[in-house]
Amino acid sequence: MYHQKYMREAIKEAELGLSEGGVPIGSVLVLEGKIIGRGRNQRVQKHSVILHAEMDAIENAGQRTPEEYQRSIMYTTLSACQMCSGTIVYLGIRTVVMAENENARGAEEFLKEHNVELINLDLSEMKELLRSNR
Amino acid sequence: MYHQKYMREAIKEAELGLSEGGVPIGSVLVLEGKIIGRGRNQRVQKHSVILHAEMDAIENAGQRTPEEYQRSIMYTTLSACQMCSGTIVYLGIRTVVMAENENARGAEEFLKEHNVELINLDLSEMKELLRSNR
Predict the structure, then answer these.
(1) Is the pLDDT score of B87 beyond 80?
(2) What is the DSSP letter of B37?
(3) Is A23 an interface residue toward B (CB < 8 Å)?
(4) Which end of chain B has fewer CB atoms < 10 Å from its terminal CB, N or C?
(5) Spatial separation of the C-alpha atoms in residues B131 and B3, rounded to whole Å
(6) In chain A, what is the straight-line distance between the N-terminal and C-terminal CA atoms, in Å?
(7) Continuous H helices in chain A
(8) Any chain B CB within 8 A of the CB of A62?
(9) How confident is the model at residue A45 (pLDDT cuts 50, 70, 90)?
(10) Residue positions of A annotated with a catalytic role
(11) Cross-chain CB nearest to A83 (options B43, B64, B87)
(12) What is the largest CA-CA distance in chain A?
């Protein structure tokens, strides 16, 4: 239930992205129960290459200490790609909660090898939302 | 000599960053002899977490095809960290030329494991520039 609450916020970001004409993938970065960064895929809206939802949330969270990253949880509606996973490992984020990994399976083995805990909520609604809008 | 020419442009970006009060690390992304993206570390200037020089150059290059990334060379004045290296692998960039790796050694083994060619020009001037201004 704890994870569902924050994933709901990541889903709101995905839905907001869709309403902007973008790819519906959203993320939030949560530090000890507080959302410190919200983000959504900005490929369409900002013509961005690097602003996947996770990167957007991390950037919007601002500069944080290593200890803050270590205590943070990344919520994302889609399994994190190699770019986002590299960033997660680089910053020292230790837990990633995804809504699903059927539309794309990211660098999950890489994350596990770097001792990042992965939790897949396996949400049908997000599989369908992205499948229908990509 | 070929690589030196483009590294010179990455060094110009690093020097530009320094003149702005930033961390002197620069990059250029080169596609078949043409610079398609220039970048520099934006930690100070834009208070950015994710805009390392390589990420800035990639973003400034705009959206490119997989084939364009595969034919591109990333020049960077410092060995690429795990975030930038994850991005390089994600996009399919196959060659990275660095000026040095003594101020920080990035995810070089990771890049090699993903068949990215690494070339270290081992430039004393860049070791000194970053060492004196970080």
Answers:
(1) yes
(2) E
(3) no
(4) N
(5) 23
(6) 29
(7) 2-19, 53-60, 66-70, 82-91, 108-113, 124-131
(8) yes
(9) very high
(10) 54
(11) B87
(12) 39
At A47-60, the pLDDT tens digits run 999 999 999 999 99
**Cβ atoms within 10 A of the Cβ of A45, count?**
15
Nearest to A99 by CA among A1, A2, A3: A3
Q: Which of B7, B61, B18 is nearest to B41 (CA)?
A: B18
B132 touches chain A (CB under 8 A): no
pLDDT for position A134: 78
* Partner A, chain B 70-89, Cβ-Cβ below 8 Å: 81-87, 89
Instruction: Name the residue facing B86 among A61, A63, A83 (closest C-beta).
Output: A83
- Tokens 């060492």 locate to B131
In this predicted model, what pLDDT tens digit does every residue of A1-13 receive, in sequence order?
789 999 999 999 9
Token pair belonging to B14 = 């690093």
Q: Determine contact: A43 vs chain B, CB below 8 A.
A: yes
Residues of B classed as catalytic: 54
Task: Give the list of residues 6+ apart from residue B58 with CB closer than 8 angstroms, or none.
Answer: A49, A50, B29, B37, B39, B74, B87, B91
What's the average model confidence in pLDDT over B88-105? 98
Q: What order do you get walking across the sheet with A117-120 strand by strand?
A: A34-40, A26-31, A72-76, A95-98, A117-120
Q: How confident is the model at residue B1 (pLDDT cuts 50, 70, 90)?
A: confident
Query: Considering only CA atoms, which of A94, A101, A87, A97 is closest in space to residue A115?
Result: A94
Candidates A36, A90, A93, A96, partner chain B, best to mutate (most B CBs within 10 A): A90
- The two structure tokens encoding residue B12: 């110009």
Q: What is the ipTM of this complex?
A: 0.96
- Structure token digits, residue A31: 């530090």
What does DSSP assign to residue B94? -
- Tallying the residues shown for chain B, one arrives at 134
